[in-house]
Structure to design on (501 residues):
């Protein structure tokens, strides 16, 4: 370590102890850096506390009512799932038990994160930190200096500026509700909105989901978007597309959602063009919808307000995101940022990888930039979505000709349950090179399947190599290696006309 480095209190000061910040701190400390981490709220960030982990636990909980029903087709006899909050028989659901058990698991994970940071030799400040200069940080009542500053403060929910928005809850809040509502309005069309709509519908709540556009999950493949809309409607979710909320009011309706009252959403036309026939709801709805609670899941924005970035001259985007280069460096030489605060790909594994690459680059003289191409991801909707690579519209825009393979089928399980559920498996292949450039799945096991496909795509696998791979039978995943005949060939000039807004 040079004498110049010794002029600073720390070699690295990390603001935010979420997935990306924790990984960066651990790796840097492992290379001998003097590291400090500040976290003002909860260790583990969004993912551990109000994101991936509690959400997935709630998803598990919401599946049991359907599982109890399906068991009858396999010879099991017993009480049917009761309504939320109680009922006769053994299959009654108790919301406070779920929340309490979730809280216990999150507390355990918070402790693990503390151990990871302190066990690596880094100092942990349980306090808010702000930047006061290019190398200076104010934390816990004092000012410290650092050779490098890493911003890893994540994101937070975005709420629109409409009358009555104070009556809405955010996606973060659902994990702490004291009681389960009987009726819920979910506003939004991203993956958080569809996941939470599915969770509460599975727990027996009457769910209405509102989205301003013609079809939710904009940016995902259209066949998957259509398929999920159909499946959610089968599960009782009332989807209303092309519909906005103009205002929210409190109403005294004796509901169970809190305080003995409820909410009323006044609707307005969303303004989007009509969606595909048979999929989108009546466009441009007006009128009102009453519920016990209204949940807004209309996106997240980088958590940089009040962080002091301007004190060091750090450039940000209009939404507050820290602007960084391919190495996660801001316009200020020794200030860096990783994870959702950069608004690149807002996924926990991406933040972890970015944090690791930063530490390798800066503290191990091993320059590595994170690779944001062909990132596999999942949406824990019901059924789940797994996706990697380009959508059909994107592939059609990038390649002159694309072979599109689609398989739609009823899962083997439901040949005995009688449940009306369809899975969709889709591959996109560059016709010129035979390389698989997109994979999109709608299936209960989609998240588990797409991880392996992501490895193959990262290795540049061709459709011929997929075809030479032995299938595992009987599984849903075997469809990925048994689709032989393209459903259609998409040409570049046709692609623009096929995409749903």
């Amino acid at each position: 370590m040079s004498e110049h480095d010794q002029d600073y209190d720390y070699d690295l000061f990390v603001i935010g102890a979420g997935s990306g910040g924790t990984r960066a701190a651990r790796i840097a400390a492992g290379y001998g850096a003097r590291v400090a981490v500040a976290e003002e709220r909860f260790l583990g960030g969004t993912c551990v506390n109000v994101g991936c982990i509690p959400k997935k636990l709630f998803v598990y909980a919401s599946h049991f009512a359907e599982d109890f029903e399906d068991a009858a087709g396999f010879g099991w006899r017993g009480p049917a799932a009761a309504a939320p909050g109680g009922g006769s028989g053994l299959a009654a659901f108790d919301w406070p038990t779920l929340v309490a058990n979730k809280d216990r698991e999150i507390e355990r994970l918070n402790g693990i994160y503390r151990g990871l940071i302190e066990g690596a030799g880094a100092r942990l400040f349980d306090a808010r930190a702000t930047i006061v200069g290019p190398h200076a940080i104010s934390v816990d009542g004092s000012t410290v200096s650092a050779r490098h500053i890493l911003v890893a403060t994540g994101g937070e929910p975005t709420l629109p500026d409409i009358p009555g928005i104070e009556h809405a809850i955010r996606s973060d809040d659902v994990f702490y509700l004291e009681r389960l509502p009987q009726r819920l309005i979910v506003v939004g069309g991203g993956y958080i909105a569809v996941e939470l709509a599915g969770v509460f519908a599975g727990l027996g709540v009457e769910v209405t989901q509102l989205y301003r556009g013609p079809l939710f999950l904009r940016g995902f493949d259209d066949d998957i978007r259509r398929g999920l809309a159909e499946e959610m409607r089968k599960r009782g979710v009332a989807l209303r597309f092309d519909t906005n909320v103009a205002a929210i009011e409190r109403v005294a309706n004796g509901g169970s959602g809190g305080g003995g009252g409820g909410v009323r959403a006044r609707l307005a036309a969303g303004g989007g063009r009509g969606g595909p026939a048979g999929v989108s709801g009546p466009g441009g709805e007006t009128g009102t919808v009453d519920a016990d609670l209204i949940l807004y899941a209309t996106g997240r924005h980088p958590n940089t307000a009040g962080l002091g970035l301007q004190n060091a001259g750090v450039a940000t985007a209009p939404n507050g995101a820290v602007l960084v280069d391919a190495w996660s460096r801001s316009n200020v030489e020794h200030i860096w940022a990783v994870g959702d605060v950069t608004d690149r790909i807002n996924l926990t594994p991406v933040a972890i990888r970015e944090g690791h690459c930063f530490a390798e680059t800066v503290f191990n003289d091993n320059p590595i930039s994170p690779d944001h191409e062909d990132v596999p991801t999942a949406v824990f909707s019901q059924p789940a979505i797994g996706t990697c690579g380009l959508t059909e519209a994107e592939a059609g825009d990038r390649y002159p000709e694309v072979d599109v393979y689609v398989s739609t089928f009823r899962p083997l399980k439901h040949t005995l349950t009688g449940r009306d559920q369809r899975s969709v498996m889709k591959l996109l292949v560059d016709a010129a090179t035979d390389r698989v450039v997109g994979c999109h799945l709608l299936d209960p096991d989609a998240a588990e399947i797409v991880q392996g496909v992501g490895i193959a795509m990262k290795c540049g696998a061709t459709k011929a190599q997929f075809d030479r791979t032995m299938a595992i039978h009987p599984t849903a995943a075997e469809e990925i290696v048994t689709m032989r005949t393209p459903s259609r060939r998409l040409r570049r000039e046709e692609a623009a006309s096929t995409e749903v807004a």
Observations:
- The first strand starts at residue 10 and ends at 15.
- The longest helix spans residues 95-119.
